[in-house]
Amino acid sequence: MNIECFLCSKVIPVQTSKKGLPWFYCEDCQFRGFVNSEQGIAGLETQAVDGGRFEPRPQVEPSEPPTEAHRLASGVDAKQVSEAIKGEIMPLLKTMQEEIRGLKAQTAEAKAPAKRKTKPTPRKPVTIREYIEANA
Asked: How many domains does one find in the chain?
């Protein structure tokens, strides 16, 4: 289904969001629109340039079984959800933090300049006249 952009009248395609609702985007004028109600979808279909109808994308079932946190979040106790998250996510988070610390240390070592073994000798200040005489 295609519609005319409300601002520049360019014909633009209507896309389907993750939730199965229509939305559209005009690259020319950067206008983006979302339609969330049945009445809005019906109105959008009357504005269709090609006479098309909006066909929502079928909802796909997740391929992985829900985790304990998902199961608990669908219904009940915040304390149980919190405990499930701590049991599943916190160990992963700690592992990731340790890996990040190790990578930061490696990066810092690689970027650190080589240390001088001796101190540089201080230079005597040179006047402009001395510089010109030395380089003439």
From this structure: 2
User: In this structure, is residue 20 part of a structural domain?
Assistant: yes
Per-residue pLDDT of the chain (136 residues; tens, 9 = 90+): 888 888 888 899 888 888 888 899 999 989 899 888 888 888 888 888 777 676 666 666 666 666 666 666 666 566 776 777 777 788 888 888 999 888 888 887 777 776 666 777 777 878 888 888 888 7
Q: What is the DSSP string of 38-88?
A: HHHHHHHHHTBSS-----PPPPPPPSSPP-HHHHHHTTS-HHHHHHHHHHH
Instruction: Evaluate whether residue 120 is within a structural domain.
Output: no
In a domain, 18, yes or no: yes
Domain hosting 76: range is 68-110
Q: What number of CA atoms fall less than 13 Å from residue 128's CA on the CB side?
A: 0
Residue entry with tokens 């610390």: 101
Q: Output the pTM of the full model.
A: 0.40
